[in-house]
Hints:
Elements: H1 3-16, E1 22-31, E2 34-44, E3 49-53, H2 60-67, E4 75-80, H3 89-92, E5 96-99, H4 111-119, H5 128-134, H6 150-162, E6 168-172, H7 180-195, E7 199-203, H8 207-213, E8 216-221, E9 224-229, H9 231-235, E10 242-246, H10 253-257, E11 262-269, E12 272-277, H11 280-293, E13 300-304, H12 308-316
Parallel strand pairs: 3-7, 3-8, 5-6, 6-7
Antiparallel strand pairs: 1-2, 1-4, 8-9, 10-12, 10-13, 11-12
Bound molecules: adenosine-5'-triphosphate.
Residues 31, 36, 54, 56-62 line the site of adenosine-5'-triphosphate.
Amino acid sequence: MSAHTQTTTQMAQALQKGSPTIVVGNFSKNYGAHRVVDHLSFSVQPGEVFALLGPNGAGKTTTVETLEGYRAPDEGSIRVLGLDPIRQAQQLKPRIGVMLQQDGLYPALTAREVLRLFAGYYAHPQSVDALLERVGLTAASKTRCRRLSGGQKRRLALAVALIGNPELVFLDEPTAGMDPQARQTTWEIIRELKRSGVTILLTTHLMDEAERLSDQVAIIDHGQLIALDTPENLTGAKNANIVRFVAPEGLDCQQLAALPGVKKAEEVRAGSYVLESDTIPTLLVDLTTWLRDRNVTLSELRVGHGSLEDLFLRLTGSEVRD
Ligand SMILES: Nc1ncnc2c1ncn2[C@@H]1O[C@H](COP(=O)(O)OP(=O)(O)OP(=O)(O)O)[C@@H](O)[C@H]1O
């Protein structure tokens, strides 16, 4: 099937399910001779949290900014809430919220003034004070933006994205630079938004964030879609096939790999071992017998599945990108 036929089929399938909130069909974008998004297709259903993951420079921000109407596609078609983000921007903008990566837009205004300013752009904004409270900025509401900490700036950017009661929110690395408390609060806000039916497209470099929050995860690399599924399906969460254990370093991994049903045995860090098998109960018996026979003291033993981070690194490699 050609890429075009495939995209047309995907778009037709998406439309049959009801109106998707976002439909990206065969979208490509070049900067000069450099193709940064390469025939990307996906759709986001109403009320879904959709995570876009990829190494630095993979094309995430370019994609998100095109969905927001700030960049024009070179090829393909984009529909957001059924609208063309550029030609129908006036209809679209009041219905979406955007959390930008750069936070320093109004250094001389206080947090409350920034929110009041943005509230003025919408017909039915949220209460500024309630939103400041929700994102934990009440005490800092009179602080000028340039004096806010990095995490506080991110929380203000989140509040700006939510002030207009949007149907769809774009969150670009929403918890980057936040401390664990602020991160938990932000995750709770995202879950509340989802419960109230808001659709969320998020980009993140935090795999646990994507795993906890999203209904669908798309991984892109070099502008191409390389994986798209639920976090459970991507990590095989329904099918635990990994045993991790901690014991003295230097155990013989060749012998461990030779235990019945073991597909892989590795000492991933000194004294930290990972075995992969589809027959976990049998493996546990054989492994503990093997350890007992060698008088090996076990300090931890866990059964689980691979993480999104494992999959991400396997698909995109471990080389650092520019
Ligand atoms: N305006 C521009 N002009 C030229 N090249 C650009 C422009 N914007 C982005 N790029 C390049 O396009 C590629 C994709 O960038 P993009 O910001 O979309 O990636 P990203 O996946 O969001 O990365 P990160 O995780 O680092 O934010 C990069 O190589 C980047 O340098």
